[in-house]
Write a structure and sequence with these properties.
This is Fibronectin type-III domain-containing protein. It comes from Popillia japonica. By secondary structure, the protein is mostly beta strands. It has 4 domains: about 80 residues, Immunoglobulins (Immunoglobulin-like, Sandwich); about 80 residues, Immunoglobulins (Immunoglobulin-like, Sandwich); about 80 residues, Immunoglobulin-like, CATH 2.60.40; about 80 residues, Immunoglobulins (Immunoglobulin-like, Sandwich), CATH 2.60.40. It contains 1 helix and 29 strands. The strands form 8 sheets. Strands 10, 11, 13, 14 and 15 form a 5-stranded antiparallel β-sheet that branches.
Length: about 400
C-alpha cells in the first residue's frame, strides 16, 4: 500500500533525527578518546623494570625494558667512565651501545625517561659496571706444598696485566666452602683445614665486577696413611697399623687390601688397624684406600710387605697328620699350613720303633710311606721341614 504524503514526511523526519543523533554520539566518543589520550600521555613516564648491561667484543651493550604510563617515551642514557665527564644520549629504541670503552674502566650508567608531553620521569635507573673481557680468568695457576702450608698461586688474566684488581679465593673441602679476599697473587693455608681434599678456585675482582671462578688446583691428603707399620709377632698373622691426616679433626674409614700373587684379602675398617692371614713365599703389597667423599679423593697408600720368607720364623708347618697302615707300610699324610702353601715345601718323615730298635724314613711335600717290620706296639713319627725353618712335628702311632 502506497504511503500518503503525510506519512512520507513523518518517516523522513524520523530518519533525519536518528542520523543527527548518531553523529552527535560519534563526536562524543571521539572527544572522550582524545581527552583520555591527552590525559594518559600527559602523565610522567614510569621507569623500565629492568636494565641489562652486557659486553661483546669489547663493546658495552645497555638494554632496558619498555617504560610504562606513556605514549612515546624518549630514553636518555647517561654514563661516565672512571668518574670522567658525563655523556648523555637520547634514544627512542630500547638499547644503546658504547663502543670500546677502556678495559678495566668503571662505568656509572643511568637511565631516565621523558614522555611525549615533555614530562620527565621522577626517578632514574642506575647501575655500576666494570669493563672486563667475558673470560677474564687467572693464568699460570699452581698449588704446591711448602714448609709453611699449602700455597695457591696465579697470575693476572691475559690482557689485564695493567689493571688494578683483587682476588676472591674459594676453598672447597668435605667440610663445605669458605672464602678469602686478597690483593696478592697467592694465598697460603694450613693442612688442618681439610681431611681428604682441598680444591682452590680464584676469580678476579675489578671495580664493580667479579669474574667466574677458575680452578687453580686440588690437593689430596698425602699422609692419609702415614707411619705405616707392619707387625708379624704372630707368624701366622699380619697386623698393619698407621696414623692418618689431621686425626684430631678427621674421622675416616678404610678399605685395606693385602694382595699376594693373583689373590687378595680385603678388610673394611673404621680404625687405623687391619689384620690378615700371612702368606709366605710370594710378593705381596698392602694398599690403604680411605673411603672418599663424593669421589674427590682417589689416592691410595700402598707399601710392599716385608718378611715374606719364613726362614727366620718359628712355625708349625704341618697340621692334620693322618696314618694309614698296610702291612709293613705306613702311609703318612699331612696338610701344609695355609700360610706356606705357596712355598717349596719338602718334609722328612722318620719312623722310630723303640721296642724293636728300628728306624726308617721317607720324604714328601704332603705325604710319604715308611716301611718297618712292625709298627706295634707304638711308633714315633717325626715330621721335619727340609726347605723351611720351622718346628718339628712329633706324632705317635699305637697299635
Amino acid at each position: 500500500m502506497a504511503l500518503t504524503e503525510k506519512q512520507r514526511k513523518i518517516a523522513l523526519g524520523v530518519a533525519i533525527i536518528i542520523g543527527v543523533a548518531a553523529v552527535i554520539a560519534g563526536l562524543i566518543v571521539l572527544l572522550v578518546v582524545l581527552l583520555s589520550k591527552e590525559d594518559f600521555c600527559d602523565k610522567p613516564p614510569s621507569l623500565p623494570t629492568q636494565l641489562y648491561v652486557t659486553e661483546t667484543d669489547g663493546n658495552v651493550m645497555i638494554k632496558w625494558s619498555q617504560a610504562g604510563y606513556t605514549c612515546n617515551a624518549t630514553y636518555f642514557v647517561q654514563y661516565s667512565i672512571n668518574g670522567g665527564p658525563q655523556v648523555e644520549v637520547p634514544i627512542a629504541d630500547l638499547q644503546h651501545t658504547v663502543i670500546k670503552p677502556p678495559v678495566c674502566s668503571d662505568m656509572l650508567i643511568r637511565l631516565r625517561t621523558v614522555g611525549e608531553s615533555g614530562k620527565i620521569g621522577e626517578e632514574s635507573l642506575d647501575q655500576n659496571y666494570t669493563v672486563l673481557p667475558v673470560h677474564a680468568y687467572v693464568t699460570n695457576t699452581a698449588v704446591t706444598r711448602t714448609d709453611t702450608g699449602i700455597v695457591a698461586s696465579w697470575d693476572k688474566p691475559t690482557g689485564l696485566e695493567a689493571c688494578d684488581m683483587n682476588y676472591s679465593v674459594k676453598f672447597t673441602s668435605e667440610f663445605g666452602e669458605f672464602n678469602e679476599q686478597t690483593a696478592s697473587k697467592s694465598v697460603t693455608v694450613q693442612e688442618d683445614i681439610f681431611c681428604f681434599y682441598l680444591r682452590v678456585q680464584v676469580s678476579t675482582v675489578v671495580g664493580f665486577s667479579e669474574t667466574w671462578f677458575a680452578d687453580v688446583g686440588k690437593v689430596n691428603a698425602e699422609d692419609i696413611a702415614a707411619n705405616l707399620s707392619i707387625s708379624s709377632e704372630n707368624p701366622y698373622l699380619l697386623v698393619a697399623t698407621w696414623s692418618y691426616h689431621n686425626e684430631d679433626l678427621c674421622s675416616f674409614s678404610y678399605t685395606v687390601t693385602y694382595k699376594f700373587g693373583l689373590e687378595s684379602q680385603t678388610s673394611e675398617v673404621s680404625e687405623p688397624r687391619a689384620t690378615f692371614d700371612v702368606q709366605y713365599c710370594v710378593a705381596a703389597t698392602l694398599s690403604i684406600l680411605p673411603s672418599a667423599l663424593d669421589g674427590e679423593y682417589t689416592g691410595v697408600a700402598s707399601v710392599m710387605v716385608a718378611n715374606q720368607n719364613p726362614d727366620k720364623m718359628v712355625l708349625q708347618p704341618v697340621e692334620n697328620v693322618k696314618f694309614l697302615m698296610d702291612g709293613l707300610s705306613m702311609a703318612v699324610s699331612w696338610n701344609v699350613h695355609k700360610s706356606l702353601r705357596r712355598c717349596l715345601n719338602l718334609f722328612k718323615v722318620t719312623a722310630r720303633n723303640g721296642n724293636l730298635g728300628q728306624e726308617a724314613s721317607c720324604q714328601g711335600t704332603s705325604g710319604c710311606a715308611v716301611i718297618l717290620s712292625s709298627f706295634c706296639p707304638s711308633t714315633e713319627f717325626i715330621i721335619s721341614p727340609r726347605t723351611l725353618q720351622g718346628e718339628t712335628v712329633r706324632k705317635t702311632y699305637s697299635c
